Each structure stands twice: as C-alpha cells, then as structure tokens.
Amino acid sequence: MQMSEDQKREMEQRRRDVARGKRAEEVASWYFRLNGFLSIPGFVVHPDVVRRNPMTEADLIAVRFPYSQELIAGRVMVDDPRLTNLGSDSQVLFRLVEVKTDLCNINGPWSNERDGNMQRVIRRLGFARPDDVPPIATAMYQDLRWQDANHILQYITVGERVNDGRQRQYPKLVQITWPEIAGLLFERFSRFPEKLSADRRLIHEQWPAFGRRYGRVFRRMKSVEDSRQYLSQYIRDG
User: Fold this and answer.
1) 30-40, pLDDT tens digit by residue?
2) Would the N or C end of the chain have less CB density within 10 A of its end CB?
3) How many angstroms separate the most distant Cα atoms in the chain?
4) CA-CA-CA-CA dihedral for 11, 15, 16, 18, to nearest 10
5) Is the pLDDT assigned to residue 120 strictly greater than 60?
6) Alpha helix positions (H), the chain
7) What is the DSSP letter of 194?
8) On the CB side of 13, how many CA atoms lie within 13 Å of its CA?
9) 182 vs 4: CA distance, rounded Å
10) Average pLDDT, whole number, for the chain?
11) pTM of the predicted model, to two decimals?
C-alpha cells in the first residue's frame, strides 16, 4: 500500500527525531566521560519473565569512583561541580541519566512505582544487598535520589531547558542543560589545550564522532557562545 504525502512526512520527521536523540545521547555520554564517569549507553531493563519485550531503557547509566582525578602536565583537571558536588570523596556516584533534545523530563517507566524498573536497575548495578533493594527503590521513586555512607544513586535529566514543574515535583532532581555542557566543554579545552593534539589536523581517534568534530571546531571558537551554538547545531542537524 502506497503511503500518502502526510505519512511520508511523518515518517521522515520520526527519522529526524530519532537521529537527533542519538546525537544528544552521544554528547551526554562524552560529557560524563570527560568528568570521570564510566558509562553504559542504552541500558536496557529486561522484565522478570522470559519472552517479553524490554520494560524500558535508560539513555545512560554512569558511575564515578571515589578519588577520581586526571592530571594534565601536573595540573589537576577540575570536573564539573554540577556532578562532583552531589556527593563526598568517599562515595561511589551512580547516575541514572535521561537525555532529551528539548525540555528536560523524566520518562514514565522511571516514575511509575508499579512498573518496578528501579528495582531491576538497582539489582543490576549490584551495590546493594537484595533485602536493601526495595527501600532504595522507594526512595528513588519519591525523591529520584538515594544515598548511604558509601554510595549515591541520583537521577539526572539532560536537555535544552530546565523543567520547572518537574523540579517542584522532585526537589532533589538534577537537571543539566546543553548550554551548561557547552560551557564546560569550552572551559575544559581552553584551560587544558594539551588534551588536543599538537598537530591541528589530528584529533584523538578514540573519541566519539562528536568529540572529534568538537575538537576540530574548537580551534576556531572564540567564546562560550560559539560552543553553545555549535553544540545546538550538532544535536539539531548533525
């Protein structure tokens, strides 16, 4: 059956939206990586029974261990305090990250206690004894944050704009915007140009596509606003 023009336009729009989402997730993953987090993108939460579709997916799960530090030419590289100030040096920081291209938000499967997805992801992360999983999950559903002396589990949403309604609903929710991330990237490479190759033609091949492209474009940037404009354009158009 042949598609109508409206159906074709709708399909093309969905394709563009999916591509934008993937680019946004790539940027977020690199941002957490530059701040000392080990991460798993596209973490699928499977149901408790077999032969069923996945329950949901976390755009990114990230963990940062105590005393994480990077030295460049003998200087300590300061990571983003929006992330590091959420806990102490003695706590392992677990981050459950939701990535949006526009308004920061929380996906329903993570806020609906009946679905039980928090319990599943906590069990898989493996930092809690089985008997401790239910109360930790309850705290996450209520506050989107839980901690004890050694661990912190924090829900973070990344997007273009802060969601004031969600912040009122969950005061402990952490929201990080693309302009803030762009500012961190510009500051990082301005203060530590050693992270870029001395050869202007070369960028670390181990970096993701966005990282390689940002490294090349950064050499022409003159301000934080240039960084913000480039990051926005990359997510929007590639």
Assistant:
1) 999 999 999 88
2) N
3) 65
4) 130
5) yes
6) 5-34, 81-84, 108-111, 117-125, 133-143, 164-169, 178-191, 209-218, 224-237
7) G
8) 6
9) 40
10) 88
11) 0.89
